[in-house]
Amino acid sequence: MKNILMIGTGGTIASEMTPDGLTPELTPTQLLRYVPAIRNLCRVDCLSLYSIDSTNVTPAHWLGVANAIRENYDRYDGFVISHGTDTMAYTAAALSYLVQGADKAIILTGAQKPINYDSTDSKLNLMDAFVCAASGQLAGVNIVFSGRVILGTHARKTCSKSFAAFSSINYPDVGILLDHRLVRYISPVSLNRPLFYDRLDEKVALVKMVPGLDPGLLDYLLTKNDALIMECFGVGGLPAYEDEGILRIVEKHTAAGKFIVVTTQVQNEGSDLSVYSVGHGLKQNPLVLEGYDMTSEALYAKMMWILGQTKNPRNVAHLFYTPVAHDLLRCP
């Protein structure tokens, strides 16, 4: 039997009703009691790392989970991380950069309803997660949810209440589960030995462009941060307006060594700054990077990881455009 480590972080799956609403209370050991069949599938050890609502997750928690995997990597055949759904996609993306090239499955799962509810999806998701972790058919970071296996760098929560909460953006599902049996569509790519990282630059901001946005907001965010990710319109157009205030802010801060990532707020198909004049001029600036088909969740985590390693513009661009865990499918 495979040896699997379950890492608990809290979330709805581990929540119980309190006077203040649902609050994470259950440990991984307590969760496993609701799904005794898991014990017939693999040997499980439990690590209760956090007990928080995923709304409260920060990059420090990502580093904590990555460190727990690193410290236990040689002792286990796979990992299951129970996590709240609201920021699970961000954690999955972050772990994809902090633990690169893993030859073992690192599975995140959770639920839309607590495990002690009669109508819960927790038991199905938890069982499926352990099936995947112990299968020997998967490697690296994936989300397992509602019968789907979704690559960590392309996951997004797209439903706030439905059990099918997650979608794979600009990438096929890695596989599906039918009656707790894994049907894998895509073979994993792993290294002989994973690369672990322990530094993130948290001075990365993300803003969604809206018509008539005050350039002062961008000026403030770039003053406070090392990089700004801008979710622009369509394929990546940046408003010029009559005063060209936004373009002047971009020029001012990139001249000072700040990085700007241009992506699209449109969920599918990615950006292409070469199409329209409102985007084309940005491609001439070496400190303006284009997100292409990467999700905003992956861009946010990737820039934190990159700037935690280097601030050299050439090195930043090289790392940004080097695919990690299939995060970038279309390169310049």
Order of strands across the main sheet? 4-1-5-7-8-9-12-13
Number of strands: 18
Amino-to-carboxy terminus distance: 45 Å
Helix content: 25-40%
**Uncertain segments of ≥5 residues (pLDDT<50)?**
none
Provide keyphrases for this structure.
332 residues, alpha/beta, 4-stranded parallel sheet, 18 strands, 28% helix, 25% strand
What does the model show?
- With 332 residues, the protein is an alpha/beta fold.
- 28% of the residues lie in helices and 25% in strands.
- The chain has ten helices and 18 strands.
- The strands form five sheets. An eight-stranded mixed sheet has the order 4-1-5-7-8-9-12-13, sandwiched between helices. Strands 15-16-17-18 form a four-stranded parallel sheet, sandwiched between helices.
- Helix 4 runs parallel beside helix 9 and helix 6 packs parallel to helix 7.
- The longest helix has 14 residues.
- The termini are far apart.
Short description:
This protein has 332 residues and is an alpha/beta fold. The protein has helices at residues 28-32, 38-41, 59-72, 88-98, 122-133, 215-224, 245-255, 277-280, 296-309, 313-320, and strands spanning 3-10, 15-18, 21-24, 43-52, 78-82, 99-100, 105-109, 140-145, 148-151, 155-157, 166-168, 175-178, 181-184, 195-196, 204-208, 227-232, 259-264, 288-290.
